[in-house]
Amino acid sequence: MFKRVFLLFLCFAMFTGCAAQPTSPNTYRGSEALRTSSAETVTVVRVRPVTIADTDGMLSANSGVPGVLGAVVGAVLGARVIGNGNGRYLVGALSGTVSAVIAQTAATHLNRRDGVEVIVRTDSGRQIVVTQDADQQFVTGERLYLVSGASGYRLTR
């Protein structure tokens, strides 16, 4: 019973750890709340869509940890559910391999999201590039607020 609960916990931990960290101007971390930031008005020079891939962290697709966890969970579950005798080792190896590929592919796709790269010009003529989640649409020539704080720059209306 304990082993099944532990394996279920590993499955949830593997897929929960693959969640991407938001870079939205609408999302603040708790450490950023109640802190001062500065804002200045800027003009949008160029906007282009990009893909943001979170490759940092132990459970990112680049670390290989999701694949290893998937292999372990798949091998144990496959060997316990299917097969008897020596056949269960073969089934465990096959299900472990398939589970590793599925977990690694899932981690790769879960760690990617749509973003936007915006080049803005300050009133003093300096150009700044800001990349953030694509939850706001900007157009060339639009006046925005460039908010700078401890976590970097954000663009907002």
TrEMBL record:
Which terms are listed as keywords in the entry?
Answer: Lipoprotein, Signal
Q: Which residues form the signal peptide?
A: 1-19
Specify the superkingdom.
Answer: Bacteria
Indicate the segments forming the Glycine zipper 2TM domain, all copies. 66-106
Q: What is this protein called?
A: Outer membrane lipoprotein SlyB
What is the organism of origin for this protein? Cupriavidus neocaledonicus
